[in-house]
Amino acid sequence: MLALIGALIGCALAQAGRRGQMVALLLHLRFSARAPLVAGLVLAVLANVALSVVGGRLIGPVMPGNARMLLLAIALLGAGVSLLVRVKAPAADSVNNRYGAFPCAFATLWAAGFGDSAQLLVMALATMPYAGMTAAIGGFIGTVLGLVGPLLIGPAFFQRVPLRLIARCAAGLFLLSGAWLAVAALGLTGQS
After folding, report:
1. Domain residues for 50?
2. How many angstroms separate the CA atoms of 14 and 32, rounded?
3. C-alpha to C-alpha distance for 7 and 120, rounded to whole angstroms
4. 79 pLDDT more than 90
5. How far apart are CA 5 and CA 50, in angstroms?
6. DSSP labels for 65-128?
7. Residue 19 lies in a domain
8. What's the CA gap between 153 and 117, in Å, rounded?
9. Distance from chain centroid for Cα 3
10. Nearest Cα residue to 127 out of 47, 51, 69
């Protein structure tokens, strides 16, 4: 249950003002049909989450408990740092509409989500024993929730939602929890 809630909240917060949301807005501006865009987004997120969980389930059994905890700490610290870095908006012509809304949404959102903080969080959580499916479900729901706003609302999403405030608060939460986990994983808590 902890992996489900951690992945859901972590992945949703990791999208605040990031490249995935900007790509979703570009797709919304380029295509008028929302249903194929949302379907492409859902499939792209599903592919990225599945890849993360497979990776986590492959490396998890060969990692000791402290190494899994340290990997999660690194994922949290990386998510915190990435939320503090300003993201340059992708160029409007980077979204090609030659193939249609669904394939374009799938390809661009899969590429935007490949290697991002949410994917690393899901992979780190999936290394924990018995957490693969719950990390997948939480990561999927959280990432979709984080990305769907610009597709459904459009450009007004970035004016209505205080993304900078959400990103800074989430960055602080990620950095504090990541530092705490790193100290615990490295055994620097003063325990003998």
Report:
1. 2-186
2. 27
3. 10
4. yes
5. 17
6. HHHHHHHHHHHHHHHHHHHHSPPPPPPGGGS--SS-HHHHHHHHHHHHHTTSHHHHHHHHHHTS
7. yes
8. 24
9. 14
10. 69
Q: Which two tokens stand for residue 29?
A: 């501006």
Q: Tens digit of pLDDT for each residue in 42-58?
A: 999 999 999 999 999 99
Q: How far apart are CA 136 and CA 169, in angstroms?
A: 24
Task: Indicate the number of domains in the chain.
Answer: 1
The token pair that represents 97 in the structure block: 């509409």
With CA atoms as reference, report the closest residue to 163 among 18, 1, 6, 2.
18
Q: What is the pTM of this model?
A: 0.87
Residue 35 · residue 109 · CB < 8 Å: no
Q: Cα separation of 1 and 53, whole Å?
A: 16
Structural domain includes residue 191: no
Contact (CB, 8 A) for 77 and 146: no
Residue whose structure tokens are 């706003």:
149
Is residue 192 in a domain?
no
Q: What is the pLDDT of residue 98?
A: 72
Across 178-187, average pLDDT: 91
Q: In angstroms, rounded to a whole number, what is the distance separating the alpha carbons of residues 92 and 31?
A: 12
